[in-house]
């Protein structure tokens, strides 16, 4: 038994600064193949990945995300939930599948499939020595992303991923995660709120110390502060309409 992948996974941190060394098409192809071998709900294969190579398109996507590494990277991928191919099968098989891909379950299936594929790609890329960062920021304006990438009905851009060789001064490091016992429960959900409160308080201190050390005292926020700040700013409330416009969530 090898613990190689365990150690690889434990080393992960998001990389947001890359050398200007583009990945070759051959490397990208291998990454996509590795991604495709992720498990896929009912063998439905509901993901399409778009490699964005056109500089103008990358710039337009950067406008949506507001993040420079959407342009400055070795390669840019966009993960798309894709039932367009199923709509072709639907026509050819004269079946009636539309309710399935317009349903909330269809949306969940597509979301899970794309995420599993992406994480296979992320781990494979990290094993090859590349860094990655996911880009949920592309959902700041789903309509615009659909326009830029010419996405048809029954497709939805879920997130992007920037990849590349980490810059020499890229100074990220693995961020501490919640304690194991907080996220792993056995047989029943442990809803002892006092225990949870204590675990979160201890974790807050760990995260604050981590930022303090990493930024020489410029940042000292706790995990709870970060989460409260993020989750109290109402974000992307148009999502339901954007999903419906793409043919999803119409049940
Ligand atoms: C679906 C998803 C979307 C994300 N979107 C962004 C993003 O738009 N911009 C960004 O800088 N990081 C993004 N991230 C990275 C997270 O901020 C990062 O994974 C988290 O802070 C933990 O840090 P780590 O990956 O270095 O361990 C995203 C991560 C995921 C899983």
Automatic annotation (TrEMBL):
Gene3D superfamilies cross-referenced by the UniProt entry: NADH Oxidase (3.40.109.10)
Keywords (A to Z) from UniProt: Flavoprotein, FMN, NADP, Oxidoreductase
Alphabetized InterPro entries for the sequence: Flavin_OxRdtase_Frp, Nitroreductase, Nitroreductase-like
Enzyme class label: oxidoreductase
Domain of life per record: Bacteria
Domain Nitroreductase residues, every copy: 10-164
One Pfam family it belongs to: Nitroreductase
Cofactors: FMN
Known EC number: 1.6.-.-
Family that this chain belongs to: Belongs to the flavin oxidoreductase frp family.
Role of this protein: Reduces FMN, organic nitro compounds and disulfide DTNB. Involved in maintenance of the cellular redox state and the disulfide stress response.
PANTHER family, sorted: NADPH-DEPENDENT OXIDOREDUCTASE (PTHR43425:SF3), OXYGEN-INSENSITIVE NADPH NITROREDUCTASE (PTHR43425)
Identification of the protein by name: NADPH-dependent oxidoreductase
Organism: Staphylococcus americanisciuri
């Amino acid at each position: 038994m090898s613990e190689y992948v365990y150690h690889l996974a434990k080393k992960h941190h998001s990389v947001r600064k890359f050398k200007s060394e583009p990945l070759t098409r051959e490397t990208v192809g291998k990454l996509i193949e590795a991604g495709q071998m992720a498990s896929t709900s009912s063998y439905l294969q509901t993901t399409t990945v778009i490699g964005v190579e056109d500089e103008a398109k990358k710039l337009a996507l950067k406008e949506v995300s507001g993040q420079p590494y959407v342009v400055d990277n070795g390669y840019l991928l966009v993960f798309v939930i894709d039932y367009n191919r199923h709509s072709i099968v639907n026509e050819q098989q004269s079946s009636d599948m539309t309710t399935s891909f317009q349903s909330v379950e269809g949306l969940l299936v597509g979301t899970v499939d794309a995420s599993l594929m992406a994480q296979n790609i992320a781990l494979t890329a990290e094993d090859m020595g590349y860094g990655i960062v996911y880009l949920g920021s592309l959902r700041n304006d789903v309509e615009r992303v659909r326009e830029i990438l010419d996405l048809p009905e029954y497709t939805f851009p879920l997130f992007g991923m920037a990849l590349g060789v980490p810059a020499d001064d890229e100074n990220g490091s693995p961020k501490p995660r919640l304690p194991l016992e907080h996220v792993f429960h056995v047989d029943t959900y442990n809803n002892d709120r006092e225990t949870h409160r204590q675990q979160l308080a201890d974790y807050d201190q760990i995260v604050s110390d981590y930022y303090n050390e990493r930024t020489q005292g410029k940042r000292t926020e706790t995990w709870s502060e970060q989460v409260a700040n993020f989750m109290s700013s109402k974000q992307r409330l148009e999502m339901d309409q954007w999903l419906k416009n793409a043919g999803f969530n119409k049940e």
